């Protein structure tokens, strides 16, 4: 029976991209089962505020010098993965608990999708909401192709 539990489907719930000032530039969800019960703007502010607080807490309380800083945390139901770029962009992805580390995934989204389809696109204005259809479709394809993505995960 324990082998059946090991084969549990993994999944991605949602992804946020924040700028250095806390504005949510992009949001998408794939397998989110429960909504927050507040407006998206309120949810974005709550998420960014929590990230700001956790980063501050981790940097002050760590007994060691942390080169990477805050990477993730987990609850009993999901794991939040965090990646911050040198320019202050913050990528946040919520997955189920089966996904141990999504840092490479978030770095790939930044380097290969965000930089290619947003930064190098003269039509996109940096610091504003990401409304590039090409970026959105490539990101969606990338997320759905991840080994830990399952559309029917519980």
From TrEMBL:
Keyword Nucleotidyltransferase on entry: no
Keywords: Endoplasmic reticulum, ER-Golgi transport, Golgi apparatus, Transport
Record-level GO cellular component terms: endoplasmic reticulum; Golgi apparatus; TRAPP complex
Gene3D superfamilies (UniProt xref): 3.30.450.70
Source taxon at top rank: Eukaryota
Cellular localization per UniProt: Endoplasmic reticulum; Golgi apparatus, cis-Golgi network
A biological process term (GO) from this entry: endoplasmic reticulum to Golgi vesicle-mediated transport
SMART domains documented for this protein: Sybindin
Pfam families, sorted: Sybindin
Homology family: Belongs to the TRAPP small subunits family. BET5 subfamily.
Task performed by this protein: May play a role in vesicular transport from endoplasmic reticulum to Golgi.
Self-association state and partner proteins as the record states: Part of the multisubunit transport protein particle (TRAPP) complex. The heterodimer TRAPPC6B-TRAPPC3 interacts with TRAPPC1 likely providing a core for TRAPP complex formation.
Protein name: Trafficking protein particle complex subunit
């Amino acid at each position: 029976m324990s082998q059946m539990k090991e084969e549990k489907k993994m999944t991605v719930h949602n992804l946020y991209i924040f700028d250095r000032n806390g504005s949510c530039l992009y949001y998408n969800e794939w397998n989110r089962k429960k909504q927050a019960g507040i407006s998206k703007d309120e949810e974005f502010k709550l998420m960014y505020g929590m990230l700001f607080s956790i980063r501050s807490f981790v940097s002050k309380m760590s007994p060691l010098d942390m080169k990477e800083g805050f990477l993730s945390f987990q609850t009993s139901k999901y794991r939040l993965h965090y990646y911050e770029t040198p320019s202050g962009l913050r990528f946040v992805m919520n997955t189920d608990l089966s996904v141990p580390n999504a840092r490479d995934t978030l770095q790939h989204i930044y380097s290969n999708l965000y930089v290619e389809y947003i930064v190098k696109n003269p039509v996109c204005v940096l610091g504003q909401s990401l409304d590039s259809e090409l970026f959105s479709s490539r990101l969606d394809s990338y997320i759905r192709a991840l080994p830990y993505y399952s559309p029917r995960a519980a």
